Every structure is written in C-alpha cells, then in structure tokens.
Amino acid sequence: MKNADKAIQDGIKKADEALDAGIEKGALTASQAKLEATKLKKQATLEATKLQQQAMKETTKLKKQSSKQIKAKIDAAKSPSKQETIKLIEKLNRLKKQGIITEKEFQLKKKQLLAKI
Predict the structure, then answer these.
(1) In this predicted model, what pLDDT tens digit does every residue of 21-55 receive, in sequence order?
(2) How does DSSP assign 13-51, residue by residue?
(3) Which domain holds residue 104?
(4) pTM tops 0.90, yes or no
(5) Sequence-ordered list of residues with C-beta below 8 angstroms from that of 93, at least 6 positions apart, any chain
(6) Considering its fold, how many domains does the chain have in total?
(7) Count of alpha carbons within 13 Å of 92, Cβ hemisphere only?
(8) Which of 13, 33, 53, 95 qualifies as a cystine partner to 100, CB 3.0-4.6 A?
C-alpha cells in the first residue's frame, strides 16, 4: 500500500506542478495580451491625434483659401468696369473744369481709378 500511496502522492504532485505551470503560462499570456493591448491603444491614440491635427491644418488652409477667393470676388464686384471708370474720369474732368476740384485732386483720383482696372 505504501507504493500505491506514494504513486498517488507523486501523481498529485505532478498534477499540481502541471496545474501551476498552466496557470503561470495562462497568467503570462494574459499579461502579455494586456501589455500588447495597451501598446496598440497608445499607438491608435497617437495616430488619431496626428490625423486630427492634419485635419485641423487642412481645415484652416481651406478656410484661408475660401476667404481669399471670397474677398477677391467681392473686390472684383466692387471695382467699377472699364466703361464705368472712363465715365467717372469724364465726370471728374467736368468737375475740374467747373473749378469744383483741383487739378491735383483730379489727377490723384484718376490715378486711383486707373489702378483698379
């Protein structure tokens, strides 16, 4: 019976060792999985942050471009056509001849108007 008891005890001991090894291996694997998950989460967060920053830069760039285009169109709409400019210069010339404005004022305004064409 001693041999049988010893065999049983040896079997239990080996089973315990195998169980401990399995638990340790499982714990190690779970720990590794947790570390990998944390690492991947950090990488994803960094990538998302980079993409957000790129999107913000692109949005700012597009807003500036849109603002410039809108301003250019407004300026173009505000500036008189060539024919309107010529008519304004003719009116200014009549005002100069009538003595309402000086030659200097006429030349200054004429220069400003022609610069817009």
Answers:
(1) 777 777 667 777 788 878 888 888 889 888 899 98
(2) HHHHHHHHHHHHHHHHHHHHHHHHHHHHHHHHHHHHHHH
(3) 80-117
(4) no
(5) 106
(6) 1
(7) 19
(8) 95
